[in-house]
Amino acid sequence: MQGIWTAIVTPFTRYGEFDARAFDALIDDQKASGIRGVVVIGSTGEGLTLTVQEKLALLRRAVGRGKPELEIMSGTGTLSTAQTVEFAKLAVDSGADSLLIVTPPYSKPSTAGLLQHFQAVAESVSVPICLYHIPGRTGQKLTIEQFQRLSEIPTLTAIKEAGSDMAFYTEIVLATGKTVLSGDDLSFLPSMAAGGEGCVSVLANILPREMQAMYDAYRQGNNSQALAYHQCLFPLMQALFIESNPAPIKALLAKEHAAMEDVLRLPLASLSDASAPTLEKIYRTAKQQLQSLAASFGN
Asked: Would you say residue 258 lies in a domain?
């Protein structure tokens, strides 16, 4: 599961329905970028607001449009183990290559409960599982001991760590021996120095080539080039969380893609008028700097 994965947004029409035409355009852009794959039905994809029928339609669209250039990872985690297992099976039947499963939010299960939850999913499907650890959304921060226990599940092959604490990130890498992906664009480059092997990225929705270029530069030992990308993109990475994700990234995508509307589902709302000019300015500055970088790198 190493590499760049885009936590792809779910576009909606102005009437609030899944917009397949806009989604196709986003997938085509991702295919052309050279990234590893896309994660559908995650937090950035507003998965909690989608019906089961919408999730399956979106997933099948991603599979049909994205493969073989892209691998498809499907978010399937829910509050309920039974529902998580049920949707995991449906996702795999629909063509998902792997599953992203968040630690169950709100309920804060014990270690025994967590193990049984992930084991139940692992026993129901044969594809790789990526554990999604995001305490800011779930209300539960796992201990290193819990990571160690969960890593004993054979098909749990990766961990998406959404925090920016590099000491804790390093402990996860050392304790589990699994592929650890950054779930936080801001700490993506530092995470690779700590033993990380990729990123599930929000920014890659709009700049997938640049995220891939940063990853490639680091993996090839060109640290100065990787750092140049990181420093150029860092203000934009920050700005994409000026309000709740995915409002900022959807606002930018709606300006860049004629087919896409700036529509979110409640309780999430579109980016406010107060934040929009700041985000737009930072994005334009980043684009200009990226052009200069490309020229200096001979790209």
From this structure: no
| Amino acid letter for position 278 | T
| Catalytic residue numbers, as ranges | 132, 160
Residue 228 lies in a domain: no
Q: Domain of 189: which CATH number?
A: 3.20.20.70
- Domain residues for the domain of 17 are 3-220
| Tens digits of residue pLDDT in 177-224 | 999 999 999 999 999 999 999 999 999 999 999 999 999 999 999 999
What pTM value is reported for the model? 0.95
Q: Is the dihedral of CA 139, 211, 264, 96 positive or negative?
A: negative
Per-residue HEC secondary structure of the chain comes to CCEEEEECCCCECCCCCECHHHHHHHHHHHHCCCCCEEEECCCCCCHHHCCHHHHHHHHHHHHHHHCCCCEEEEECCCCCHHHHHHHHHHHHHCCCCEEEEECCCCCCCCHHHHHHHHHHHHHHCCCCEEEEECHHHHCCCCCHHHHHHHCCCCCEEEEEECCCCHHHHHHHHHHHCCEEEECCHHHHHHHHHCCCCEEEECHHHCCHHHHHHHHHHHHCCCHHHHHHHHHHHHHHHHHCCCCCCCHHHHHHHHHHCCCCCCCCCCCCCCCCCCCHHHHHHHHHHHHHHHHHHHHHHCC
Number of domains in the chain: 1
Determine, yes or no, domain membership for 256.
no
Residue 63 lies in a domain: yes
